[in-house]
């Protein structure tokens, strides 16, 4: 076998092993709607809770800022 054929064979084997390893991951789990709910209080476990954020979440442009599309 020439060097080029050996390199192609090596790349093919590497892709085959990689596809087998990637296929065994848990990447197909779905995030439920409960995890994505807004303004939901998380339960405190063991007394190691963080305080609530001081500023509410802001996802847009305020009217006073005179941004486009508002």
Automatic annotation (TrEMBL):
<keyword id="KW-1015">Disulfide bond</keyword>
<keyword id="KW-0732">Signal</keyword>
<keyword id="KW-0372">Hormone</keyword>
<protein>
    <recommendedName>
        <fullName>Rapid ALkalinization Factor</fullName>
    </recommendedName>
</protein>
<dbReference type="InterPro" id="IPR008801">
    <property type="entry name" value="RALF"/>
</dbReference>
<comment type="similarity">
    <text>Belongs to the plant rapid alkalinization factor (RALF) family.</text>
</comment>
<dbReference type="GO" id="GO:0005179">
    <property type="term" value="F:hormone activity"/>
</dbReference>
<comment type="function">
    <text>Cell signaling peptide that may regulate plant stress, growth, and development. Mediates a rapid alkalinization of extracellular space by mediating a transient increase in the cytoplasmic Ca(2+) concentration leading to a calcium-dependent signaling events through a cell surface receptor and a concomitant activation of some intracellular mitogen-activated protein kinases.</text>
</comment>
<dbReference type="GO" id="GO:0005576">
    <property type="term" value="C:extracellular region"/>
</dbReference>
<dbReference type="Pfam" id="PF05498">
    <property type="entry name" value="RALF"/>
</dbReference>
<dbReference type="GO" id="GO:0040008">
    <property type="term" value="P:regulation of growth"/>
</dbReference>
<keyword id="KW-0964">Secreted</keyword>
<feature type="signal peptide">
    <location>
        <begin position="1"/>
        <end position="27"/>
    </location>
</feature>
């Amino acid at each position: 076998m020439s060097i080029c054929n050996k390199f192609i064979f090596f790349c093919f084997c590497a892709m085959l092993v990689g596809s087998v390893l990637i296929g065994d991951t848990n990447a197909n789990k779905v995030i439920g709607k409960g995890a994505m709910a807004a303004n939901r209080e998380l339960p405190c476990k063991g007394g190691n809770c963080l305080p609530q954020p001081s500023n509410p979440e802001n996802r847009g442009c305020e009217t006073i800022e005179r941004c486009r599309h508002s």
